[in-house]
Design a protein that fits this description.
It comes from Daucus carota subsp. sativus (Carrot). With 293 residues, this protein is α+β, with helices and mostly antiparallel strands. The protein is 42% helix and 22% strand. Among the domains are: 110 residues, Elongation factor Ts, dimerisation domain (Tetrahydropterin Synthase, Chain A, 2-Layer Sandwich); 39 residues, GTP Cyclohydrolase I, Chain A, domain 1 (Orthogonal Bundle). The strands form 3 sheets. A 5-stranded antiparallel sheet has the order 3-6-2-1-8. Strands 7-9-10 form a 3-stranded antiparallel sheet, with helices on one face. It has a two-stranded antiparallel sheet with strand order 4-5. Helix 1 crosses helix 4, helix 3 packs antiparallel against helix 4 and helix 6 crosses helix 7.
Length: 293
Amino acid sequence: MIYSQSAKRSIDILYAAQKDLRKRGVILASKKSSRTAAEGLLALAQNENKAAVIELNCETDFVARNDIFRCLAASLAKLALLVDNSQQLSGAFPIGPEYFEGLKLDVEHPKLSGERTVQNAITEVAAMMGENVKLRRGYAMSMSSYGVMSTYLHASPQPGLGRIASILSLEVEDQNAPLDAVQRVGSELAMHVVAAKPSFLTKELVSSEAINNEREILKSQAEASGKPPMAIEKMVEGRLRKYFEEVVLMEQKFVVNDSVNVKTLLSNLSKEVGSPVKIGNFLRMEVGEGLQR
């Protein structure tokens, strides 16, 4: 194609203007970086043996609904899935923003196509949105044994995105055991984790400090009743059992069928598949938790 000199000058002027606008946008984005960003989305990516979830924050729910913001979140989750956590023996492996430094990604959106660094992509989206946009945190979890990895997203505007997420692994002792029932229960347990908000897997994992603090609070409440010491002690122990039922996953009543707790559910599942089944690890995340709004 042949361009006239005037047409070429017009194109050069246009490119220069676009470049200047992008620079100004980046400067404006950096000025907004100190503003509170407690809204946003969780993005989850998964393969057969691993799942990763990231939290991308913005200032308003309006930006969280933007297609470019959502594409960026999904791209970051896919990148988090590639982070090597092979040295992590168990549990959720934290993936902070530092793990993404120097890494490149393609947001795969018409208005933000092409490869760029993670930080440049976040800065450009912040400039487009006119808000503070930041990658807050991420976690990855891998399967270490035979079994299934289950995930669940609540308040999900589209596949892979949501406001509350859970990841849960079920480990099966017999590697020849069928996994159909395990996958079904795994999906239900991932939903349970989102709804019931457990903090610990078993009673043994509850710290002595947490138990002592709770016992102290319960004792103070019981003493206010004016009952004798022996009755107070029984009240405290009964309420402490209730505390474990609230915060310990294995002791919680199953949200799909509250006639059984999670421990009994797994016992029944083990009988069904003919092999012991246990929860390996679990994780629950919610947008903005722990942030001052």
